[in-house]
Amino acid sequence: MKSAGTIILGIWCAVTSFVSPVWLTITFLDITGLIYQYDGFVDEGTAGIMGVIELVLWIVIVLLPDIWFVKRMKPQGWRRVLYALGGMAALALLCVALCGWDMAGFVAG
To answer: Exposure of 109 by Cβ count < 10 A (0-12 exposed, 13-18 middle, 19+ buried)?
Structure first.
């Protein structure tokens, strides 16, 4: 049963790692008020409150299970921890690539 829980937790972490770049981008746009450049239907006060709620939900739904998963991988060896972290990073980068975000253009301004 313990291994089934680890597999389910690993799948959950994979899905949330893939969705996290979009979730955090929308959260950042809501908190900073830049959401108006993309969506004119939300007023300033509501966007800030929504951004804080989205950030809290991301911490509870994504960050805490990811930390729990990595802690469950630690007794199995550091190689498994590195594989788990590398997989999470690869899925986040895949999401960025599929969204077509130009990170070089974003940094350059």
So the answer is: exposed
Predicted model pTM: 0.81
- Residue 93: partners with Cβ closer than 8 Å, 6 or more residues away: none
Question: Contact, 95 vs 22, CB < 8 A?
Answer: yes
User: In a 10 Å sphere around its CB, with 0-12 CB exposed, 13-18 middle and 19+ buried, how is residue 71 labelled?
Assistant: exposed
Span 88-107, pLDDT tens digits? 999 999 998 888 876 555 54
- Residue 105 CA, chain-centre distance (Å), reads 21
What are 69's two structure tokens?
């998963």
**pLDDT: which is higher, 51 or 103:** 51
What ranges in 37-101 are assigned the alpha helix state H? 44-58, 64-73, 78-99
Q: 66: which residues sit within 8 A by CB, 6+ positions away?
A: 13, 16, 17, 88
